[in-house]
Amino acid sequence: MTRFFRLSGGGNDFLAVIEPAEEPEPEAIQAFCRRGLSAGADGFFVLENNPDAVGMKYFNADGHRAELCLNGTRCAVQLAQYLGWGEGGLQIHTDAGEVHGKVIDSGAVTLDLPRPGAPRQQDLEHEGRVFSGWEVVVGVPHFVLPWSDSLATAPVARLGPGLRHHRQWGDSGANINFVRFVDPHSLEIRTFERGVEAETLACGSGVMASTAAGLAAGTLELPVSAQTLGGFELEVAPAAPSPDSHDRWSLTGDARLIAEGTLHPGALAVPEPPVWTP
């Protein structure tokens, strides 16, 4: 039996375990994250209380390790403070580097991290059309697709899988962000996430990538407020005390501890999909 925590950041939900004797195998993580059959989550992370920083290992719901999840990192900061591992600011060591986090209250966390890499314009051919957008790496790869119509009707479920697996990205694929730039300081976003293989309620690195793309296009100016499908707004701003946006940005938004409990052996059940009688 394994003690676990459930957390939510902007609508992304996570399972977390603390300093396990053995790191769960990918198949176990995949089983734990299956909705309906187990605890269910968009992702899974392991926290370790190291002398110099809190270590974070992040896994997508498919069991594969990912370099970074910013909604998950905000949740990791919230959980670490709940565990008494730090007061005020915390340094989180991720596979994409060091991120500094600060708890605002029991429902919000601010991250201080490097500005995303320079966006690159990309044209993707798919379903007989050309989709023009921006490739941006925020620890993990993103494609930012500007969307001129209402996101209420954006075909995320239909176009997301094909664009996510487009040959441009190689075997690793990319997260696909449908983004509407509303005005110079706000955007709306819906994201099809790799590893979850579905649309999620929010994506923190997707918000950072979309902000970087908007700045590159001359459409946005910091600070930027992003409206997510989960209903929460995430804010990107120059990281204090820096007076400009050239080196580090902050990402502020929802991060909550939802529950804690025990994963029993039944959480590992993974039945085969049914073969229906013709």
Which labels suit this protein?
18-stranded mixed sheet, Diaminopimelate Epimerase, Chain A, domain 1, globular, alpha+beta, 4 helices, 18 strands, about 280 residues
CATH class of the largest domain: Alpha Beta
Proportion of beta-strand residues: 35-45%
* Count of extended strands: 18
* CATH-assigned homologous superfamily of the largest domain: Diaminopimelate Epimerase, Chain A, domain 1
**Which structural category fits the helices and strands?**
alpha+beta
Give the name of the CATH architecture of the largest domain.
Roll
Note the gap between the termini. Answer: 40 Å
Number of domains: 2
The pLDDT mean sits at 94
Oligomer: single chain
The largest pleated sheet is described as:
18 strands, mixed
Structure annotation, total helices = 4
What is the global morphology? globular
- Catalogue the unreliable spans: none
> Order of SSEs, N→C?
EEHEEEHEEEEEEHEEEHEEEE
Kindly report the CATH topology of the largest domain.
Diaminopimelate Epimerase, Chain A, domain 1
Radius of gyration: 18 Å
Helix content: 10-25%
Please write out the topology.
Blueprint: E1 2-9, E2 12-18, H1 26-32, E3 43-49, E4 54-60, E5 65-66, H2 70-82, E6 89-94, E7 97-105, E8 108-114, E9 120-126, E10 129-138, E11 140-146, H3 156-164, E12 175-183, E13 186-193, E14 198-200, H4 204-216, E15 224-227, E16 233-238, E17 248-254, E18 256-263
Parallel strand pairs: 2-3, 4-6, 11-12, 13-15
Antiparallel strand pairs: 1-2, 1-18, 3-4, 4-5, 6-7, 7-8, 8-17, 9-10, 10-11, 12-13, 13-14, 15-16, 16-17
